[in-house]
């Protein structure tokens, strides 16, 4: 196994392990979002759009620093996208060495990555971040987390269903109660298609994405024009050309000696194949390491920047754009419930890199990526799909896996106060309100005891009523409502707390919200006027006339 | 013995056991086993004392039998909230079953919230998970359930019940005593809903109270132990609400009698209620599932 593979594969497995560990309860010994923070594009792009230094993302700057010394080792060894591309290339590509592979011959698409970077940079400086769309770590995290992980859970679940009974008939009942929860994610088909496209490009050139498209690679390339350690070729070179044909990024010039260091991913293949041991990677002195640069015409460069500026201007004038003010707030979707601790919307969209960590880790699978519900700039941001599942009261995972702080890492106690919305009973759909059925599932499930069962004139059974000051917006009511289709109790963003800093608890208390019943606070089902239990006198639950009303569920003896 | 036989026989035996005192009052009373036991003390020792007074666990669990205990562990709330069965109650029951020679003990519920969290925060996993031949599981997937018929059901005609329960020899109900906003209170009878897969029809399609009684015609515990160490007197079933310590454990072979006794012991929403004021208890009594009239039954009080 080559030197590169011996480092690349363990790191890739580590990446998968961290992604696997991004679930409740979160391990304390490791930062599961670490790989995302290494991506220099995520780092620079997010800081630029957010207009602030984000300490957690300093890792990406460190990777750039490494670029000055060791060139694009990040691309060759660390980046899980690079490893995935390598794996796909192994399958997709002809094993025989290519006929043409010199830097000059393979120059056609190379400058694209710099053009993409230019467009993204201008856009970011104008305040609109599109780096998430191109960030290799974002793309690949989404792919493994939202495309392959659910397939894996499905596969495991089928295995358990098939082999569980078999094993228990053989006397091993270890599997008989294993319940694998299959995860479901929106947008997974698109994510799969996107990565499939990237990998299939490998049929055109090996590492097509890395050498031609990746803007993170472009940033690293800019830092790796003269790395301290770089390829040099000694006098022993016979010009056999093996190194040139082995190079996965076509970084070697047709003279076999000159190298495009900004394209070299330090895989050391040229050194390994050289029969004369003429190739070495040493700390260099200027002059002895001839190099080639990529020509990007000024015209193209400016065009790319203008395109970035134009795209951001058009996006910003889109009706649903939320940046730079809350003007189009009236058009905000009333089902767009953000995860607890999400920053105020414009800041949230600036910081969110759409990596899908929170969505993957979400304990109840309620977090889902949206398409255009939050406007064009909110593409693939996470929302709580309450009909699917509630936000678990005791879980604060999403904020703790978020690599950029778009969702604040809250303590379990603070999280209770991070109100994400308010439930509203849709009486016309509710079988208690509308059909006099004894259903109080929403009251039963409400973890904050914000829904109470009340006697309301005109109704023969108690009906659910929401106390908005107790409602945290968790959505368990919407999830468990037994009505077919749309729920009869829906969570809406009314009253959500979105704090950029400071304590949710203090803010909530200031606003008079009560998320914990304190000692002595009784459940406040409300007994309206005695005898006011309703007009339908035929009900057997009719209260004794003039007597005291009974608590919900009890009948007259 | 297959499932149907088991169901049939246990139904007949229970019915018989309930009718026995009417026909031969002397015989049953003479055996020295009371209909209802109310034990006072700390949860664990009180359970031990109550089961002892009922004639010991060997009366219910024979050597080599498979036992299912149905506590309430449907919410990720700590024991102090009173919305789940006290861990000491369940642990004591498990260890009594093991001492009686049970081949395996399953502690099962179908939690409303994340199963993992419910088991952890209720304290039941920690209390019972490491006991020998014991498993504590919150089952939520349909693969874990099997459809059964409810021949005596007035509204509920069939439902999916946990396979573990259907395959077991002995079912023990170990509910916590708590208020319930839809059914008044939730003890052993209402607690049986925690063994079914789809509770939606109970609320949507049927009268909840009638459906609870329907279900209890097929899910009949051999022993009911109601945890009234503290009761969730209002705010139930999930809490938070007013928790009142009673330091009592109620045991009976008759789940209706156990429910009635627990109801009378407690104060609900600040007042007292009669069993006939809880519709599902009343209906269970009227349909012959058990006896809610405490007066006239042999009640033994013990303390631990």
Describe what this molecule looks like in 3D:
The complex is a heterodimer of chains A (557) and B (304). Chain A has 557 residues and is mainly alpha-helical. Chain A has helices at 3-21, 34-38, 40-50, 58-70, 73-78, 80-92, 112-126, 131-134, 136-169, 188-200, 208-213, 215-223, 242-246, 269-273, 298-316, 345-351, 357-361, 397-401, 412-417, 431-435, 441-445, 476-480, 504-510, and strands at 229-233, 279-283, 367-369, 382-384, 422-425, 451-454, 463-466, 489-492. Chain A has a two-stranded antiparallel ribbon with strand order 1-2. A two-stranded antiparallel ribbon of chain A has the order 3-4. In chain A, α9 (136-169) packs across α10 (188-200). The model of chain A is unreliable at 517-547 (pLDDT under 50). Chain B has a single domain (3-303), classed as Rossmann fold. Helices cover 34% and strands 23% of the residues of chain B. In chain B, strands 1, 2, 3, 4, 7, 8, 9, 10, 11 and 12 form a 10-stranded mixed beta sheet that branches. Chain B has a two-stranded antiparallel ribbon with strand order 5-6. In chain B, a hairpin with an 8-residue loop joins β5 (145-149) and β6. Chain B is globular. The relative contact order of chain B is 0.18.
